[in-house]
Amino acid sequence: MSTAKISLSPSVKAPGSVTTGASLLNKDGPEIVLGWVETEFAVSNAPSPSVLFGPRGACLLPDGSLWVADTGHHRLLGWKTGPKVDNQPADLLVGQPDFVSEGRNAKGAANASTLNVPTGVSPWGKGLAVADAWNHRVLLWKTVPVDDNQPADIILGQINANDVLANFGKDQPQANSMHWPYGVAEIDGRLVVSDSGNRRVLVWNDPEVTGQPADLVIGQATFDERHENAGQEVGPAGMRWPHATAFWNGHFAVTDAGNNRVMLWTGFPTQNGQACDLVLGQSDFSECDHNQKAYYPDAKALNMPYAITVNGDQLLVADTANSRLLGWQDCAMNSDANRLMAQPDFASKGDNGWGVARRDSVCWPYGLTCHDGMAVVSDSGNNRILLWRIEP
């Protein structure tokens, strides 16, 4: 395990004064890095038990295991007791016949243990949920997988394990169909899916069987609509590219990446199409430009925020296109983030700080979860996972 402090490369900065903010994560860098060896030269992304290719989701489970959606290799990797050293090989594999194979649905027909661009990964009950995005479904294991290619117990978004068409091949969605579901989360016992291609969020109170319809839709007025921004101008009810969800300080939160904002509802929504109460990243409900119409970001601005998680009373956001991680404690309209990581100040941006990858830099952080004070960062552009202690 390495904890040596490495400074970031210089970043593009706005002219004039800038603010730095407190550190969101440990200044000494991640405790564990998976899938990456420090080098200035390109390295092979050929699959192996320790090589990742564009991972877009990962999570630590209560049993101590780590699960990673190795997106570019179309597989799910598991570390039974969590990794203890950098680049530790995975113990378990779902989605491919062996650790050196790759290909959508293992280059064959889909079944309950194949994957096609897996993204979000979340605890679910005593088991695991995985957003199998390009198979237009979510896979659920009632208990944590213990064997390679253990089939999922429940499939949502399709009526069986072999079908993979978006919205069952129809133009309109239904309560039990999906189109590019990129995010999945468990919130107070509910299963919440960011059905990104349908520009909506779906909620199941208690999913029990394959093909079960959702109980609630957010972002659209009804289950059979999929309009961008609910067919209206940008506002508090519609979405453009919902990607991840969480519950923070009494508020349900959705990263609306296409509108460069985080939407917040007071309490958990109870009605289909319910409008949100406030947003972060924009000055009002009608705005949607990245970095609030500026080239340089600041403590309020967002640029395609894909991921979100909660640690205590703090909201953590992966500000993906700005290649930085932000923390909020103030739950108010257009409030400032008060914590920052992976850039030297709030006015800086750039993949790896416009330099080569370092241990404490990020490039398009696509996934973000946490457990017991440990952030799990899917540093997709650097083909790696970072296990990084959150600052108290």
SSE arrangement, N to C: EEEEEEEEEEEEEEEEEEEEEEEEE
Structural class: mainly beta
Indicate the low-confidence ranges by residue numbers.
1-16
Radius of gyration: 20 Å
What is the β-strand count? 25
**Architecture in CATH?**
6 Propeller
Number of domains: 1
Q: Please give the alpha-carbon distance between the first and last residues.
A: 21 Å
Please, what is the average pLDDT? 94
Overall geometry comes to globular
Secondary structure: helix percent: under 10%
Provide structural commentary:
The protein has 392 residues and is an all-beta fold. It has a single domain (22-389), classed as Neuraminidase (6 Propeller). Helices cover 0% and strands 32% of the residues. The chain contains no helices and 25 strands. It has strands at residues 22-23, 32-34, 57-60, 66-70, 75-79, 92-94, 118-124, 127-132, 137-141, 154-156, 181-187, 190-195, 200-204, 216-218, 242-248, 251-256, 261-266, 278-280, 305-311, 314-319, 324-328, 339-341, 365-371, 374-379, 384-389. It has a 5-stranded mixed sheet, with no helix packed on it. A 4-stranded antiparallel sheet has the order 2-25-24-23, with no helix packed on it. Strand 4 and strand 5 (75-79) form a beta hairpin. The chain is globular and about 50 Å long. 51% of the residues are buried. Residues 1-16 have low confidence and may be disordered.
